[in-house]
Design a protein that fits this description.
This protein has 324 residues and is α+β, with helices and mostly antiparallel strands. Helix content is 60%, strand content 13%. A six-stranded mixed sheet has the order 3-2-1-6-5-4, covered by helices on one side. The longest helix has 35 residues. It has two domains: 204 residues, Cation efflux protein transmembrane domain (Alpha-lytic protease prodomain-like, Up-down Bundle), CATH 1.20.1510; 79 residues, Cation efflux protein, cytoplasmic domain (Alpha-Beta Plaits, 2-Layer Sandwich), CATH 3.30.70.
């Protein structure tokens, strides 16, 4: 019985065999370090600007009696907590493995994305409640001040969102940060529109009405993040990987008669792991075969950490197979 595990950690790929070891090193991960450092700057920049802006919104919201500004400040506060969570998770993901945490703290990125989605939905609920109260009890609002303060928010949140735009497709944790900032920019833009219309029409109910419209937009975007992060937290197959396609590829390998105990799950928001048993009756497969399979799994499906066990007959298996 042969077993191989291909790992990528701190710029190194490792191929392990039970009786024989073959190590190869790859130092091409400096780009990943640079990206992580750039995100550190993005997180710091976004948090600092939003804390200052929250104080400005609260002060002017109270002065002109604008629910939209105060609601936006509350939403921004939740986003600051969300950014802190995402930043902390990205930092924890870089911790080395230990004898008790054999995958390190990579899973924290998934938990941060899940908590971010929950925080966003809680903020949405609070905005909805207060907006309904303002509809039932409308109050006069200073539209011009409202527009100026919210306009500053559009600029701040848009700039911060742009810093996370590139990484949102490949990292669910970064996607959470991007959605937070993009949602804030949308809220602020809605507040600007409300201020303008209030000045033109004197219809103060526009303030809470615009807030409710923005709530719907935020909820739609957040629901996707919530589903994806919960999906990964349950060790389900990442949505960008088709289980049947991976099994089909493994079954097509020369000499493979059966594929069983195939498991695919997310180690973090950017890394995927796989374990599988391949039944090869002749058993004549060497390190090159195993290394090639691991490379193809990464190239075709984006699976970075693969552990393959070769068996001569299916009776040697003791694990429960996955029904497809």
């Amino acid at each position: 019985m042969e077993k191989v595990e291909r790992k990528k950690s701190k710029g190194r790929r490792r191929l392990e065999m039970p009786h024989e070891h073959n190590h190869s090193h790859d130092h091409s991960h400096s780009d990943e370090f640079t990206q992580r450092r750039n995100y550190n700057k993005a997180f710091g920049f976004g948090i600092a600007l939003n804390v200052i802006y929250i104080a400005v919104e609260v002060v002017f919201g109270l002065i002109i009696n604008s629910m939209a500004l105060i609601a936006d400040a509350g939403h921004n506060l939740s986003d600051v907590f969300g950014l802190v969570l995402a930043w902390g998770a990205a930092y924890l993901a870089g911790f080395s493995v230990t004898s008790k945490r054999t995958y390190g703290l990579r899973k924290s990125t998934i938990l941060a994305a899940l908590f971010n989605a929950i925080i966003l939905l809680v903020a949405v609920g609070a905005i909805t409640i207060e907006s309904i109260r303002k509809i039932l009890e409308p109050e006069p609002i200073g539209g011009t001040t409202m527009m100026i303060v919210a306009g500053v928010g559009v600029v701040i949140n848009s700039l911060t969102a742009l810093l996370f735009m590139k990484g949102r497709e490949s990292d669910l944790n970064i996607k959470g940060a991007f959605l937070h900032m993009a949602a804030d920019a949308g809220v602020s833009l809605g507040v600007v529109a409300a201020g303008l219309l209030i000045n033109l029409t004197g219809f103060f109910l526009l303030d809470p009405i615009i807030s409710l419209v923005i709530v719907v937009v935020i909820t739609i975007g957040t629901w996707s993040l919530l589903k994806d992060s919960f999906h990964l937290s349950m060790d389900a197959v990442p949505r960008n990987i088709v289980f049947e396609e991976v099994k089909k590829y493994l079954s097509s390998l020369e000499g493979v008669k059966e594929v069983h105990d195939l498991h695919i799950w997310a180690m973090s928001t950017t890394e995927t792991a796989l374990t599988v048993h391949l039944v090869i009756p002749d058993g004549q497969k060497d390190d090159k075969f195993l290394s090639k399979v691991c490379e193809q799994l990464q190239h075709k499906f984006g699976i970075e950490h693969s552990t393959i066990q070769i068996e001569k007959n299916v009776q040697s298996a003791s694990c429960e197979d996955v029904n497809v």
